[in-house]
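Q: Give me the 3D complex with aspartic acid.
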Amino acid sequence: MTPRIHAVVLLSAFLAVTARGDEPPAARERIVLVVHGGSGVRPRSEMAPAREQEYRRVLTEALRAGHQALGHTSRSVDAVEAAIRVMEDSSLFNAGKGAVFNHDGRNELDASIMEGREKRAGAVANVTRIKNPISAARAVMERSAHVLLIGDGAERFAFAQHLREVSPVYFWTPERWEELQKALHEEQAASPAPGAAKGGETDHPFGTVGAVALDPAGNLAAGTSTGGMTNKRYGRVGDSPIIGAGTYADNSTCAVSCTGHGEVFIRNAVAHDIVARMKYGKRSLGEAAREALRALPSEPGGVGGMIALDARGNAIIEFDTEGMYRGQITESGAVTTAIYREP
Ligand code: ASP
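A: Here is the predicted complex, encoded as structure tokens.
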């Protein structure tokens, strides 16, 4: 394995109010919800100020929706679902409406959710007609005997639960279509051997969305939703719907949602790796997240990142890419958002 040199970034700058996961508890407000919109940001030089504002606006809307849900029901799982639905409904992020295209020009969506008290979990993969896959994942968790449903079966289950169906055309956006055309073009230019599909390896958008939340009873929850990777093939499923890889929650340690090159996150069971480092290695949240990210093989441009929250309201945000769409909200509703390393 190539020695990992990439700078694992602890975003102290994120935010003066981001509590580092290895800080002793201080007289400060608990962070109750953290969201991310993926670690594959467009380069800062290409980000128009108006577009950056739009990202921050949607991140803020997601945080407020989650905070409001928490206020109504006091359940972290409601905060996670509400926040992710807002990002799924925006075309800015690679999830729901803004999902990327696979090699065949289709949008295949994945999502998962987990709660940390009883460790119940639900996930869907490869769905094409469910407007909000995170709600389908939640329905699997709460209304089925299973954890992961895929494709047509997942859709039949979701619609039987009265979740909203949309035509696959709903997920078509010009920007994602252009990204696919670019990926196909680059792939062709590199003329790989026939059948040697490298789906998604041309230009990682890493725009997956995720949320981690803490409720007043100390229950943690985590959720992740994605369109996967541009130009993916063969029914490819990434880490986002895989419990332990892209998502995990355990009240005794933390809730985690990851974004990045899914295959790497699956092989390294990254979300659970953070939990295990805390549980068995007695690491702090911050140490566990940094170690887990550093342990991954490096990739040009970075492999991804994660958000995590513990039951004391300490949050950690780590990534090795140029930036990560992210935000957090405290108990009293103070919102902070950021995209690049320097806010
Ligand atoms: N992790 C996602 C996947 O591999 C991609 C992303 O984070 O944007 O499907």
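A quick observation: Confidence is low (pLDDT under 50) at residues 1-21, 195-203.
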